[in-house]
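Worked example

This section walks through a single chain of length 144. The input is the sequence exactly as stored; nothing has been trimmed or padded.
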Amino acid sequence: MDPEYVRAPRRWDMTLIRDFMIFIGPISSLYDFLTFYVLLRIFHSGQPEFHTGWFVESLATQTLVLFVIRTTKNPLQSRPSPSLAATSILMVALGVWLPYSPLAHRLGFVPLPGPFFTFLAASTATYLLLVELAKRLLFSRAAV
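Given that input, the structure is written out below as tokens.
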């Protein structure tokens, strides 16, 4: 969180939290369905590829969204702590590496096709952008 946001105790705004879940939850679900579609219809994934692809996409989006929701500001202007940045990036890198690791077989993972990572980058970037836009809308409504 930004220092000015945690400087003084605040009451939880349950309406804002509820609205945040109502807006962000469907965005996340939309990206799950988009991932399902791409894996099944574009990549013609079998069960192991589907399992692997959805794991990697979910890990990337749900970990990196922390950079957007941890601040009321633009996430590019509000730097996270070095430990949050390092552990988040490390977790996503680990998730991308797992299908190629010695643990892949035990986890039911298989290597993903190269073009999947183009989809992963595009879907993660657009997901984060949509969450940022929803966050700005919610905070602008809350300030009124």
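What to look for: Residues 13-143 form one domain.
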